[in-house]
Amino acid sequence: MDLHQLRCFIAVAEELHFGHAAHRLEMLPSALGRYIRLLEEDLGTRLFIRSTRNVALTPTGLLLFDDARLLIAQADALASRYRQMGRQQATTLKIGAIDSAAAGLIPQLLQAFRKRYPDVEVQIFEDKTLRLIPRLKSGRLDLVFIRPPEKKERDIEMRFLFNEAIVVAMPQSHPLAKRDCLQISDLQDQPLIVPERKSRPHSHDLSINLFAEAGLSARIAQLADEKQTIINLVAAELGIAIVPQWTSRMPARNVSYIPLTGNGAGAINGLPLSVAWMRDARDPLREKMLEVLMAQLPLSA
Length: 301
What we know:
This protein has helices spanning 3-15, 18-25, 29-43, 59-87, 99-116, 129-137, 201-213, 227-235, 284-300; strands spanning 48-50, 55-57, 92-97, 121-126, 143-146, 156-164, 166-171, 191-194, 219-223, 241-244, 255-259, 271-278. Helix 1 (3-15) crosses helix 3 and helix 1 crosses helix 4 (59-87). The protein is built from 9 helices and 12 strands. A 5-stranded mixed β-sheet has the order 4-3-5-12-6, with helices on both faces. A 3-stranded antiparallel β-sheet has the order 10-7-11. A two-stranded antiparallel ribbon has the order 1-2. By secondary structure, it is an alpha/beta fold. Strand 3, helix 5 and strand 4 (121-126) form a beta-alpha-beta unit. It has 3 domains: 3-85, Winged helix-like DNA-binding domain superfamily/Winged helix DNA-binding domain (Arc Repressor Mutant, subunit A); 90-163 and 272-300, Periplasmic binding protein-like II (D-Maltodextrin-Binding Protein, domain 2); 166-269, Periplasmic binding protein-like II (D-Maltodextrin-Binding Protein, domain 2, 3-Layer(aba) Sandwich), CATH 3.40.190.10. The termini are far apart.
C-alpha cells in the first residue's frame, strides 16, 4: 500500500464513479482500476461494490475512507512544511497559466516584476486549468492563473481577478469580418468551433450559453482542445469561434477578431480569470509576485 494508491482510493470513494475519479486524477480509467485492485490485493479485502451502473463502498471501504483521508492530510502537511522551509531560501518562482493569460497577462506582469526583483528567476508553464491545479497542490508550481474550477478545494486560496473580454474569431474573407462589433444573433447558423467541455468547461459553456440565452441553437461544426488549433481551423475557413480577447495575440494569418456585444449593452461578460496558491504555504517570492500583480491589475483588466 502506498500514498498514490490511497489517493486513487479517496478519489473513487468521493466520486463513486471510476470515470469521474480518473478525469480528476488525469488518469485513464483502466490505470485507476489497476491501482484500486492492487490496493485491495495488498489489504486482502474488497473496498468497492461494483456494478454496471453503480459504485459503492463496502463496510471495510467506509472504514478505510476516514483513515486514508487522515493519513493523506498528514502526509500533505508534512510535505508542505518542508517545502516552506525550502521556499524561504528559494530564488526561483514557478508560475502556471492558461494559454490566454500566458499570452495577455503574463508578459506585462513579468516585465513589472523583473524591474523590482531582477535577481528572481521566474519559470512559466502553460497548460489547462485541470492540469495546473494538481501541479500546484503537489508543489511543482507556486502560483497559477486559471479559470476558477466548479469544485472549490479547501487547501487552495483563490482570488478572482477579472473577466476576460471575448471576441469572435473568423476568417478575414467572411462577410461579417468587416463589422466593428457583432451580436450573437449575427452568428445564427454559422459553423462554430468549440473546445471539449471536459478540458475547457468555461469556454465551452460560454459559447453554448450565449446562443441559448438568445433563444438560438449553436451549430457546432468542430471540437478542438487547444486555442491555437481552434484559431488554425478558423484560418482554414472551417468555422468561427468565440474566444478570449487575448487569443488575438497568438500567431495566425487570415483571422479577424470582432468584439461581441449584448443587445443594446456593452461587451458581454467574458471568461473569469483567477489566481490561486496553496493556502497554508508561506512563500516570500509568491507574495512579492502577488503584490506586483495587484498593482498591475487595473492596467490588465
